[in-house]
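Holo model, iron/sulfur cluster. Inputs:
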Amino acid sequence: MNAPTPPPGGGCRSAPVLKERGQREVFCGLTGIIWLHRKMQDAFFLVVGSRTCAHLLQSAAGVMIFAEPRFGTAILEEGDLAGLADAHVELDREVARLLERRPDIRQLFLVGSCPSEVIKIDLSRAAERLSQVHAPHVRVLNYSGSGIETTFTEGEDACLASMVPVLPETTARELLVVGALPDVVEDQMLALLSDMGVGPVRCLPARRIDHETAIGPNTQFILAQPFLGETHAALERRGATHIPAPFPFGEEGTTAWLKAIAQEFDVPPEAFAAATDAPRARARRAIAQASEHLNGRSIFFFPDSQLEIPLARFLTRECGMSAVEVGSPYIHDAIHGPDLDLLPAGPQISEGQDVDLQLDRVRAARPDLTVCGLGLANPLEAEGLATKWAIELVFTPVHFYEQAGDLAGLFSRPLRRKSLLKVEAAE
Ligand code: SF4
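Output:
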């Protein structure tokens, strides 16, 4: 089992990083509730926020109509904001009403927002108090999804990090896979690990509170998502050991991720090959087909989801693209280092954002494809640049072998569409 070959001219791990701390254009951490509430089937996310927060959630969730929704907003009215009403008393009343009506709820997250932070409602005190009232049937935790301090994927990080201190202790040697994956993708991953003979495997977040995940000094954890810096730190504080690896995007990334686990769990090379050879070949074929329009094209990443570095590695090494700039809201060496090692030297690596300066750079470079937030995509399209919405990459199943072709397809689609429009305009 060999490690992936480093690029001939060296990787980007020690490349100079352009650090920017200016204006940012990103969604807030409340957005994560959309995928987290689907994953955690007995959880409820109660945002303590304003009507704006409620609208954001509704529009991000699309027009789904739920008989029994699993997220909601406790709206702070003017009286609360002016400090005229006791928000804690009202919150307790709302939670009691909700839990009485919904006995299926086993985990309740109080999610902070910009307004709750500005008026300094202490949600950790509220969560402690409500936990005492509603335990043992319901566990109440809190985290912040406020746009003041989070980008949109940090909402998941903050949610998972809030769970780590309350998970039970174990001394068992177990693999913990960290990061919410769609159920179908998680099942594929569990099947691959089982075929390799690795187990027991736990997931954080688990689908239900009863599938309890425990943590201890013999827990080896690997991240499935690259935006989990706070959770990574919380797990290390509990004594768990991180398995560093490139992220499982594309054939190469998935193989390297599985190999990192195989090495820790002493999987024989034959067992590894037997489990991975067939899906690897399928993934290679699918990528080759889907990346026809990507080969030789350039790409520019605005910092948005923290998926940028592993995706740039996938697109440059497996799809023949060249990266002009790879921006990420945060770069964490322990988490992004293995992907930076493999990303061929050349692109500007940037951390944080000063949106006007970055727009100047993208206009000067005129890349074939720009990955950015929704707010920037339309203006850039109007200037003739093809764009890809970063948020789509979080809502679409993109991990592991079976999704590798779809992942390449997500990037080739805007380029194909642009070339079709050009043909039509020429006719
Ligand atoms: S948390 Fe802040 S940024 Fe997010 S919707 Fe509410 S007010 Fe807007």
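The first helix runs from residue 33 to 39. The first strand starts at residue 17 and ends at 21.
Archived with the compound record.
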